[in-house]
Description:
The structure is a single chain. By secondary structure, the chain is of the alpha+beta class. The chain has three domains: 3-87, Thrombin, subunit H (Beta Barrel), CATH 2.40.10.10; 107-190, Trypsin-like serine proteases (Thrombin, subunit H); 212-292, PDZ domain (Pdz3 Domain, Roll), CATH 2.30.42. Helix content is 15%, strand content 41%. It has helices at residues 3-18, 49-52, 189-202, 236-241, 260-264; strands spanning 22-26, 32-38, 44-47, 58-62, 69-77, 82-87, 107-112, 121-134, 143-149, 161-163, 169-176, 184-188, 212-221, 224-234, 248-252, 255-256, 275-282, 285-292. It has a six-stranded antiparallel beta barrel. It has a six-stranded antiparallel barrel with strand order 7-8-9-12-11-10. Strands 13, 14, 15, 16, 17 and 18 form a six-stranded antiparallel β-sheet that branches. The chain is globular. The N and C termini lie far apart (59 Å). Pfam families: PDZ_2 (PF13180), Trypsin_2 (PF13365). This is PDZ domain-containing protein. Keywords: Hydrolase, Protease. Residues 212-291 form the PDZ domain.
Amino acid sequence: MSLLRQFSDDLTRLIAGVLPSVVALSDADSHSAGSGFLIDASGHVVTNYHVVAESEKTVRASLPGLPDQDAVILGLDQFTDLAVLRLETPPRDFVRFRDDPPRLGELCFAVGSPLGYLTESVSIGIVSGLARTINHQMTTRPIERCIQVDAAINPGNSGGPVFDADGLVIGIATAARGDADNVGFAVTAATARNVVPELIEHGRVVRASLGIGVAPRTVEVRGHEVPRQAVVKVSARAARSGFLMGDVILTIQGTDADERADLYDHLGRDSIGKPIDLELLRDGEIVRLTVTADAPPA
């Protein structure tokens, strides 16, 4: 058997194994919404926030070979563009998130319902970029650490899974560039693993807040130019904590603050009310500051 025939046969078996877990989602008027996928035997479905954000309490879910059924919206997280639904009658099939991070250049497969009616569609490509920050019209801040893929992602694919060669989910398709060919983006499995349990248990993700706004800057530290986060907005509470406009955050809890995501890593639910150690660059001098993170308004 040729290598190409072996690859083709392996691919068809992989897709046949994951396809029963991929869901087509539509609103109450049967207008196409997007895609999703089952992650456990309890019927929990992961999709994008922007797929279901304007729906009521339920959406219609279609699975290959099964009658349509309602999916209840359990939780939404705008910051990561993720949502969790639950099927009333869950099938036995589901897929799993991969533990290891995606690798640049590895094969990937996007499965979903492009254009809303081309259900059970598959596209193939590679992971063509890592650690992308993307803006989405439905989110109030950029989505961090997305992967870039050249597998075709079109309207209707949103919320669908991006699989690796073992049939494990490495990303959730969330956006594509309309001004480019084959430049799509997916929220990583690592982000979903952190967010999805919170959405199932609490319906939303509670994050700690420092009361500041930041923007990327390149600064010189100890003779080297490095990317860091500059304070561009200071609330009254943050001012009382000691922040000044123009401060550059060098480290948080001893970790370099190269990206906003590095700050977010230390501002989870468990950080609320806890002291957080920061190293700042202020007027050319290194300043150390300890602040207490609060919970933002719901």
